[in-house]
Amino acid sequence: MDILSLFIVAPIITVAVLLFAKNLNQSRIISLIGSLVQLGMAINLMFAYLAERASGNSAIMVFTKSFVWFKSLNIRYDIGADGITVFMIILASIVVLAGVFISWKINDLPKEFFISLIVLATGVYGFFISLDLFLMFLFFEVAVIPMYLLIGIWGSGPKENSAMKLTIMLMGASALLLVGILGLYFYSSPDGALTFNILEISKVNIPAEVQHYLFPVVFIGFAVIGALFPFHTWSPSGHASAPTAVSMLHAGVLMKLGGYGVFRVAMFLLPIGAKEWSWFFIILSVIGVVYGALAAIKQTDLKYINAYSSVSHLGLVLFALLMLNKTTWNGAIIQSLSHGFMTALFFALIGMIYERTHTRDVRELGGLLKVIPFISVIYVIAGLASLGLPGFSGFVAEMTIFVGAFQHVDLFHRVATIIGATVIVITAVYILRVVGMMLMGPVKKEAYNLLPQATWYEKTGVFLLLIPIIIIGTMPLWISDIITESIKPFIERML
Amino acid sequence: MDFSYTVLIPLIPLFVFLVVGIFSNYLNPKVAGAIGVLGLSTTTLLSLYTAYKYFFEVGKVNEVYQTIIGTKTTWIHFSEVLHIDMGVLLDPISIMMLVVVSSISLMVHIYSLGYMKGEIGFNRYYAFLSLFTFSMYSLVVATNIFQMYIFWELVGVSSFLLIGYYYDKPSAVAAAKKAFIVTRFADIGFLIGILILSFYAGTFDFQELNNPQGSLILNGVGSSFMGLSVIAWALILMFMGGAGKSAMFPLHIWLPDAMEGPTPVSALIHAATMVVAGVYLVARMFPLYYFIDGGFVLQIVAYVGAFTSLFAGVIACTQNDIKRVLAFSTMSQIGYMMLALGVSGFSGHEGLGYMAAMFHLFTHAMFKALLFLGAGSVIHAVHSNMMKDMGGLRKYMPISNITFLIAALAISGIPPFAGFFSKDEILVAALEKSPLLFAIEWAVAGVTAFYMFRIYFGIFWGKENSYAHTPHESPWVMTIPLMFLALMSIVAGFIPFSEFIAADRMPFEAHFNILVSTVSASVGVVGIVVAWIFYKSENNIPERVSKAFGAFYTWAFHKFYFDELYLFVTKKIIFNGVSASFAWFDKKVVDDGMIGIGNATLNTSEKIKKLQSGKFQDYATWFILGAIALTLYFLSKN
């Protein structure tokens, strides 16, 4: 078995074993083992990747495997990885593991919950390693569908409505995406040997007028899940209704599929379209950045705050990708990773607070630092990371993006950058507002004095997410070097 | 000569922070305090040793002090040319700052052993102090502008954490938030300034940016915007960041509120070190400020500094909370430093202002930290910040009394105390450039003496309050730092600063201007005498005078309503106006729009689903109609 296919096989085996689980304890132990194995594999993959590069393999994708799957349409099982893939897989495996820890005490239908969670993870891994557009699309759907069940069954609040909205909007995006992929397929080869393979298509120059129509279709198809303004509205209500681990996985990993797809498919395969359309989508993404942050200021539900914050942070990813500049691309990838860890951490903490106080309304909370110090201190740290404090990953990502974006000499890009940069203040406002209202101040309710402290599994989950944030934030050189290496093909193709 | 050990100066406090921070729940407060003091003592010795080695062992090479890179490592690459380094840059001003930061921080560490004794969260307090000290050291030794920015943010967050130390007190929480957000707002300017500068210069490195023979200064960049070169704009924006940190008008509003933090924190962060970071920034980039666009930006710096010093001085006269008086006094004194930089030339005696700013920064750190720590000692004894709760304390607290008096004399510019010498140099520099600026600063010197002795007499003389329990002198851990700083406030003025610090690194001999010094000392004496008449014993003169000023007094008392103005802009306009309408727009327009599309789809499908009636006749009818329509279409086409 090759090193990448394992990422599909291992979760499937986990799910298969989970089917035989009898109770909560068995389900969570199996899920834990399964996700620990996946994390181990992800770390192993990173070292294998570094060794492969060190040994002089300079192919765009390494560890490639290819099998014909559906001959008449030339659909293939093509997989491969570059540095970006490797980091995304590490992100996914850490968030999944943390999600298992955070769901340690899930009550309803634990077996089914963990199965859905791991199926979702399978979709995510598959998406990242796919080199065949059809395969990629398939895994995309595999990742999105369990979301409906996870929110609809284990969610809270107006969960059916939220689940419906989320699924329908993402399905709408999928429809666009399918059109886009078929468009790419039919232009994939001038001599008639059509292919879905990304690397093959990238060698073809698709006519400019086709790119002109195809780019926005593929871009929006992916960007909806990346919370592009104005297609972001599924996110706040979806997150608010989702159970903790699902919010973590969804905001932490699933929303990254958007940026990843935009970069790997829309921009890499349709470079002329990207150049033509970038100004338009830059405007949308800058709006998303500032608008998301401003909307977050006025929210009172913790999950809404974090969801709008995600709109803002992920807007920055799209913004950075569209800047068409290698520094910003580097920053976009780091921002994806950084946001993944941070937002998963936030949702984990919000879940812990909600479980204890049964409210997510910041107006009803207060003085938590005094009663649940561990959770509160980590919340402050996560908040500081989110507002881009040096020493945490967010700073590295944002600064890389802003410095890169400013290398454009024209007024449009610069003004967009300056508008985008104002987010560092707005973020500080909404983060400190929550910290001030919820964590500091006098203890709001008598009952809060009796709140239980964080448990070992909660602490483990939290540290799993916090450590990468600090590693990226304090030692960014190695990660940015690996990414720089991996965006070379994009540079050659587009700049 | 090897200076690579200097990397330890920031790293030791970082290590202390991690140890005390991570194990704060398990450490005995005494141990935590001891670790803190020990760590700081080590770095203080290292800083002093470095200063000795730099100034006396390496000394001048061809009459010029060299820039030495102690150590440097790349932190991240942005592009082929732009990369952030982390390193230690040693030159006269960074070494001076190391000495200031370490000595004040050490004194505060020792003092806090007594002041914070028994507080919940004592360990957290020491962890944050170490975090701050680490960040401040790293800021002053930055080798490049981005390293400075990074630690600039970190000192900001340390300040936030320490102001909000009493986190269950709503006013402290509000003050911490305000301090962070206002300075962060200013930092956007700083960041954009860095972006512009680095783009045109192709580097973040101070040595390359500041090189007077470098292409940036010699040739400029050609592109301009609204009559100024883009580099000048970058410098203005960076000064905005500096003005935010240094509480210059109009970004000053956070500093008075920051007094909610524990008093030793105010002494360290909000008087002696972090708030002068803005001054240090301008000094650090001085060649650029001086040469770009003929020093236009320096004029802005000078006028902002002069205005702030006057503005804050006036407000200080009206406040009754002694820490707030000191906070406004700090703003006012930093205004002096900014002004001095603003009027400075570059080489020889023309660079007097630059030297004077650094000199004043040094002496001010000593006597202002002393004033704060003295005030802390008093607050510790009477459990109040308000002047009305004090009075006649000289009998109970002799050491605090004498040391506070020394500091007050020093800040008032009375010879032979430290402030006299440094302020004198500033006034000389101002006079050479502009009589107006000189006049303002001269008047402020009198105002300073007045408000300082107003609180001195109010605390230690005047009517004796009936105290709930008799106030007593603070323990020795608190009085020893007071005595050390008092000693420094006496002798620091005699340091021949111009031998060590000059804008162009070529030391010169500063001349003593007997006329200016007489004039400035006498206005100080006048201020003291007025304060003596007003506040020596209880009388109604202050009340009558404040009545005479009428509306102006009320304005000044309310800090000219700047807090209210900002509150209006942020709360009413940004929060309730912009933010709320965005949230509404998102809910009602964007989200409901999407739902509307969904419903429209649903309605359409409702309508067309009737076509799927399941009746064969219906399908046959539609089929035949369609066939007819198609036939007609093709027929018409042919």
Describe the structure.
Chain A contains 22 helices and two strands. Chain A has 495 residues and is mostly helical. Chain A has one domain (6-494). Chain A has a two-stranded antiparallel ribbon with strand order 1-2. In chain A, helix 3 (83-102) packs antiparallel against helix 20 (456-474) and helix 13 (302-322) packs antiparallel against helix 19. The mean pLDDT of chain A is 87. Chain B is mainly alpha-helical and 638 residues long. Chain B is built from 25 helices and six strands. In chain B, helix 6 (170-201) runs antiparallel to helix 9 (230-245) and helix 15 runs antiparallel to helix 16. The longest helix of chain B is centred in the last third of the chain and has 47 residues, at 562-608. In chain B, 55% of the residues are buried. The model of chain B has no long low-confidence stretch (mean pLDDT 86). Chains A and B meet through helix 6, helix 12, helix 17, helix 18 and helix 19 of A and strand 3, helix 5, helix 6 and helix 24 of B.
List the helices and strands and how they pair.
The complex is a heterodimer of chains A (495) and B (638).
Chain A: H1 6-18, H2 24-54, E1 62-70, E2 75-81, H3 83-102, H4 110-129, H5 133-154, H6 159-186, H7 198-202, H8 208-223, H9 234-241, H10 244-254, H11 256-269, H12 271-298, H13 302-322, H14 326-357, H15 368-371, H16 373-386, H17 393-405, H18 411-421, H19 423-439, H20 456-474, H21 476-486, H22 488-494
Antiparallel strand pairs in A: 1-2
Helix pairs in contact in A: 1-2, 1-4, 2-3, 2-4, 3-4, 3-10, 3-14, 3-20, 4-5, 5-6, 6-8, 6-9, 8-11, 8-12, 9-13, 10-14, 11-12, 11-13, 12-13, 12-18, 12-19, 13-14, 13-19, 14-16, 14-17, 14-20, 14-21, 16-19, 16-20, 17-20
Chain B: H1 8-22, H2 29-58, E1 60-61, E2 64-65, E3 68-77, E4 83-90, H3 92-115, H4 122-140, H5 145-163, H6 170-201, H7 206-210, H8 215-219, E5 224-225, E6 228-229, H9 230-245, H10 254-257, H11 263-272, H12 277-284, H13 286-291, H14 296-316, H15 322-342, H16 352-382, H17 398-411, H18 418-433, H19 435-460, H20 476-491, H21 514-535, H22 541-549, H23 551-557, H24 562-608, H25 616-637
Antiparallel strand pairs in B: 1-2, 3-4, 5-6
Helix pairs in contact in B: 1-2, 1-4, 2-3, 2-4, 3-4, 3-11, 3-16, 3-20, 4-5, 5-6, 6-9, 9-12, 9-14, 11-15, 11-16, 14-15, 14-19, 15-16, 15-18, 15-19, 16-17, 16-18, 16-20, 17-19, 17-20, 18-19, 18-21, 19-21, 22-23
